[in-house]
Amino acid sequence: MNIKHFMKKEAALLLIIVLSVSLSAGISGCGKKSAGTIIPGSSITPAPSKPVTELSVNNANEIAFTGVLTYLNTSDLKMHFVDISSGTEYEVSYTGGTDIQNSYRKIKAASTMELGEIYDVTCNKSGKAVKIYGSESAWERKGITGLAFDESRKKIIFGSTEYSYDSHAVVMSAAEKISIAQIVAQDEVTVRGVDNKVYSVNVDNGHGYIQLTGIDSFKDGYLTVGRSQLLEVGKNMLVTAPVGTYSVTLQKGSLVGRKTVTVKKDEQTSLDFSECTTEAVKMGVVSFMVTPVNAVMSIDGKKVDYSQPVSLAYGNHRIVLQANYYDTYSAMLTVGSDFSNIVIDMTEVSSTTNATTKASSQTTAAKATTGAKEPSTSTDLTAGYSVNVTTPEGAVLYVDGVSMGTIPCKFDKSSGSKTVTLSKEGYKTVSYTITINNATGDLKYSFPDMVEE
User: Fold this and answer.
1) DSSP assignment string, 26-79
2) pLDDT tens across 237-295, in order?
């Protein structure tokens, strides 16, 4: 191939990538103009591959770099690492004599190395690995769910900390490289990095899909999947759910339907609720926001986990909260609607505020919020604008489980993180996470082509 022609093609590709990332960050500030086409996942670009011998040799006549393990073949004795400083992927050969250790300097077998781990790699000048040590400067966080990210700013958020990432960050699921937008809130992931930068994300426990049928009687009611999801019921629903076995509950007023489902990775499971047409025990879903966050709650004498919405029967319930350095909180909660938000601020022991008076006012506030969603304190700038989805044509678009139509189509714009699911006969169902900022202007999204079954 002509070198100049090749360089022009590479430059054009780089320009397209830069433009797509830039467009994903921009939002129009006036009128109904589109912010350009946003391509989810475009903040992660493929790593160029080069022979490890292209790296410079140090004073010890060795080649050394720090990289993320992306490929391991114990039969051919080959590994691939993405250099965290340059983003280049290098193939490294190793032998039975290669010194492999973890970050605590304990010897480990190559077969026990995990994709996504960060290693300090040392090769001889011919490119053969001499030492592969777990990087002592790297950190690892396992078992994370609800991972959030902002592609426009290249930020990843989990817990209370925000991290940055580069375009060559490694994102993998089952040994396959994926785009960061393909991670949804229901996935359980391992995140690895150095200092305040993330270099790899691995999906350890992925997601599948629950197709709901016969749910017309529950429209505008509420759906819960286990204790991790609470969604409003629409006419047609395809819900993204974590792999595992869960209780799925549909509720509208006194009508309740409950079934158990086993979700398998990347597979659809159907649940039919058409037989649920008679009234059952009235139940309400209550979401608690408590200060301090480590307070222990019991309802009707039974300890409960209120980190997720709690399902309670209609009627009165005794709530007790206890926490170190705070007065015990006790109040009666009346549940009389499908969904309610309850905010409770416990009284510190050192406070001069009368605990009894405050508990009484909190009880009144709790009853007042029953049946109403907590109002937003910020101005909604998205009202009147649309999100237009142009590709892949012919796929059915679901947003947070509810069908929006067949692509090309559009839906009303609202801020926040949303799970977008694409379903098309003959193709693998796929989900993406998109984050819509609270700003004016229409948005246009273009999702990658779907993969045939």
Assistant:
1) ----STT-EEEEE-TTTTS-PPPEEEGGGSPP-TTSEEEEEEEEEEEETTTTEE
2) 999 999 999 999 998 877 888 999 999 999 999 999 998 866 556 788 999 999 999 99
Q: Which two tokens stand for residue 91?
A: 């193939």
- Angstrom distance (rounded) from CA 362 to CA 344: 6
> Six-digit token pair at 9?
């093609």
Under 8 Å between Cβ of 316 and 334? yes
Q: Which of 424, 362, 18, 407 is nearest to 209 (CA)?
A: 424
Tokens 């398998």 — which residue?
Answer: 264
Distances (CA, A) of 252 to 146, 279, 341: 27, 10, 17
User: Residue 274 in 3-state DSSP?
Assistant: coil
- Give the integer Cα–Cα distance in Å for 25 and 36: 10
Confirm if 147 and 398 have CB atoms less than 8 A apart: no
- β-strand partners of 248: 225, 259
- Residues paired with 452 in a beta bridge: 427
- What is the C-alpha R_g of the chain? 26
Tokens of 108: 């480990």
User: If you count DSSP H runs as helices and E runs as strands, how many of each does the chain have, helices first?
Assistant: 2, 36
CA geometry: angle at 414 spanning 384 and 184, to 5°? 155
Strands 78-83 and 89-93: antiparallel
* CB contact set of 382 (below 8 Å; sequence gap of 6+): 413, 414, 415, 436, 438, 439, 440
| DSSP assignment string, 141-180 | EEEE-S-EEETTTTEEEETTEEEEEEEEEEEEETTEE--G
**Which DSSP letter does residue 13 get?**
H
What predicted TM-score, i.e. pTM, was given to this entire model?
Answer: 0.72
CA atoms within 13 A on the CB side of 68: 29
Q: 397 — phi, psi (to 5°)?
A: -100, 125
Three-state DSSP state, 281: coil
The pLDDT value recorded for residue 35 is 55
* Residue recorded with tokens 């992931």: 189
Strand-strand pairing, 283-291 and 339-345: parallel
pLDDT score of 324 more than 80:
yes
